[in-house]
Amino acid sequence: MTLFLNGPVQNGPFTLAGRPGKAAGIRLAEGLNQLTGTQPAPHLWNTVTLDGDLRHRTAAATVALSRGQWERRELAAKYAPGPAPAAGILTDTAPQVAALALQVCQEMLAAGTLALAHVKVRLCRACDHMTGEVDHTCRACTTGAGTRPATRQLLVHDRPDGQPVLERADFHATRASLPAHLVNVAQNAPQRLLLSRTRACGISLGPLGLDDGMVLDPRLGLHLAVLAAAAQRGEDRPAMTLTENAAAHVAAYGAPVRRWGGMQLRYALHGRIPYDEPALRRLFEAHRVTPRLQRLFTEWYLPLCAWRERAGITPARLPALLKFLRRVDLARPAIPADEVLAELHHSAEAGDRRWVMDARVLAHALAHRTDVGSATEPPEGETG
Questions:
Q1: 130-142 pLDDT, tens per residue?
Q2: pTM over 0.85
Q3: Most buried residue, 67, 247, 371, 383, by CB count within 10 Å?
Q4: Is the peptide bond preceding residue 95 cis, with omega within 30 degrees of 0?
Q5: How far is CA 115 from CA 108, 195, 295, 298, in A?
Q6: What angle do CA 291, 293, 296 make, to 5 degrees?
């Protein structure tokens, strides 16, 4: 069975209440897991970021917290004023992720998929942060001291000649809905990928023999977080929810591990949701939409629509989608039909998104959502 997991969200300076778009992948994963009868999955977060290093450094001047303590405090604040997720939170530096990462790296080093190589890079003259293979301003300090050439031993992945970054099997989608443009864009990744980074927080590569301060590149680490979460649940078919832009950025780094240890990780793509559009609030006010239907629309139906419309939902689409959901909500049966639920389950497992705009099937999906306790209120006879 497919286990849907969100692509780890960067732990930046925001809350989910203030930036609900950041929760789109989380909400989509929750909705699809509920439809397929899968237990709730943990929310995944990316904490290996240079921005996090800088923000913690600033916070440390006033609050005596370790990086781990500070990240946990920041993550807890993401969910305020609501409760933390029932299935918990998993970060890309959690012990089970780190253990899996080192196991995978060691096995792939032995197999020749990864290698330790001496690479010419640029280091900041002031703080020794590795800026990469090209000369550009260091973002880890504010001195503007420039960079110097150096040779460092790094963990690398040399992409095999002629092997595509992405293939059909890498997507949780039907053949007719494969993203040809994304496949072409992802192919532009460098031939050699550097999998080591200098970060204050991350999975240390010291056990592999690399210098202190070298951690696993987070673009590989977020794939391993998904695999670790799936392994913890005993599932071997995880699907990571993320946007096409995010997939283009990380796909090459995930290629070595998407099929590992009998597991197959796929991407379930979704588009942007215009939560921050004033038009959405005006729409609710103009049609006197109840809080219950607002939550149903924003937290459940719009993420499903974003899965169907992965180029993104335009603000102009919002009135029609709300009208459609309201009509379906009023028509949903008291008890969902088993045969329709089986159809829903099959569609979600196959990556078939057409049912999201099928009034008959969606009505039973709503009834099932109520039946399992995701919504306890009956449909309302609203007008407007």
A1: 999 989 899 999 7
A2: yes
A3: 247
A4: no
A5: 8, 10, 49, 45
A6: 110
